[in-house]
Amino acid sequence: MITNLRSRFALNPVTLKELRQMVRSRLVSTGLIAFLFLQVAVVSIALLTARSASSDPLGQSYGNVVFGTVTAMLGFMLLLGIPGFVSARMAAERSADRLDLQFTTALAPTQFIDGKIAAAAVLMLLFASTSLPFLMLAYLLRGVDVFTMLRSFGFLLVLALCVCHVVLFLGSIRLSKALRIIIVIGLVQVALPLGAALVGGMAVGGDDLTLWGAALALLAAACGCALVRALAAAAISPPHANSARLVRRLAFAFWI
Fold first, then answer.
1. What average pLDDT score do residues 131-158 get?
2. In angstroms, rounded to a whole number, what is the distance separating the alpha carbons of residues 113 and 252?
């Protein structure tokens, strides 16, 4: 009984492996330092530009300038940078020159997807932590409140997790490089304006959002992520596992 409880609440082995590789990865550490210094440079330029163009001596709008700049940079990283990194790693593990994951371990396919999503969430929070000093600066400069920051960051994190599910599914299926590049370009063209519009609308008109509206939005996002998670798990499963009658019936019912 105790062994079953420990195995149920133990850390996912895939998450542990991904976190260890992230700690040792020079790309992640270099990306964190570069992202921090880039925020310093861009926020400084934005403040200098706003000061030279503004006629308000008290600078009541400087907080909005800093908050908008940091949110745009963080959204670019969470919606494009980290999902691209996760999808590239998944595609590399599914490449033809490596063994299939299902033949080298006894873990379930859903454990791979859940483990990579958990590792991506940790990486998102790690990059988001570099924006905390600038968000504090935006609050001290006035023009934006804490609840607007938390609401925008929460909505951005949910949207980024949905994007991670989609790119994991794209990394799980075996496609040619040309078709994969075309799909990535299409996703970038859709994700950038959609993410900017949704996050901006949440920051500006989020006060009018009711509790039921937020609950329905989260429920729709959870259902979409669950469907993509099932498709990604099916993509990395052996072919005979997806041809079972129960699996086909459940997939058809879920689609309906």
1. 83
2. 21
